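Structure tokens please, single chain.
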Amino acid sequence: MSSFRTPLGRVRGLGSAKSGTAHFWQQRATAIAGVPLVLFLIWLAVNLAGADYATARSLLSHPAVTIVLALSFFVILKHMRLGMQVIIEDYVHVESWKMIVLLANSVFTYVVGAGALYALARLTFGAMQ
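Here you go.
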């Protein structure tokens, strides 16, 4: 069977990246998982509206709330990173800039996630001396 690829394409080895389907499904899975988690965050915000620090700390130190909140951070940040990756790949056309911005996207996500988890741990376990 003859190949439909051009000689230049065969030399460069360009072709299917073989990761588009996995990326598509990860984006959909995080979107679906995010729906109940966002509803949880809304519930949490309503319950904490007008509460003092002791009440907020008491609620956030409950293991179930802490776990669901940490899971919310993970799922929402993963979904954000995947979505921004698609936007960057579609609209940044200079390869060097694309790689820099994709790296910045990942670093930003990890820094925000680490900060969120640190804040949650600090609220949950108390001030670290």
